[in-house]
């Protein structure tokens, strides 16, 4: 559930960290809920008469807020992250819960290698989650590299990222990273 707040002008704003001041409402971003969301925004207007629910504007704000939150969390996770193929493969040997973020444009050989390692880890009963992230140039920028195809995160640091990436996918935001990296367009 994503917290939504209403500003003094009546605009709806996402609050992915649930820290913004004021009263908020929670928006369910599961696939079944999203099909009913436009109707649900009218309920917000009923509770807060000055609110102006606009799904398209809210959706654009959600995508921007989630993209910023993902970038901030990735940068925060940098000191503890397993950066690059070799580091991720070494981290696979430890039984601690692991989240593996694979760049959407990672090479086929890397995708197969990481996929096999994830399967072996799961077969051994070790918790691991594999998620698709942004392109390698965006992932690399977050970790101080030119390009980065794979990164491993501790589950405590990576759990919100997994949830936020899933929400972006459900919203159909397949190119959310284009306005990332300090306002520069990346292809």
How would you describe this structure to a colleague?
The chain contains seven helices and seven strands. It is an alpha+beta fold and 187 residues long. It has two domains: 2-53, no CATH class; 77-169, 2-Layer Sandwich (60s Ribosomal Protein L30, Chain: A). The strands form two sheets. A four-stranded mixed β-sheet has the order 4-7-5-6, sandwiched between helices. The longest helix is centred in the middle third of the chain and has 23 residues, at 55-77.
Write the layout of secondary structure elements.
Layout: E1 2-6, E2 12-15, E3 24-27, H1 31-34, H2 37-47, H3 55-77, E4 82-83, H4 85-91, E5 98-103, H5 108-123, E6 128-133, H6 136-142, E7 150-154, H7 155-170
Parallel strand pairs: 5-6
Antiparallel strand pairs: 1-2, 1-3, 4-7, 5-7
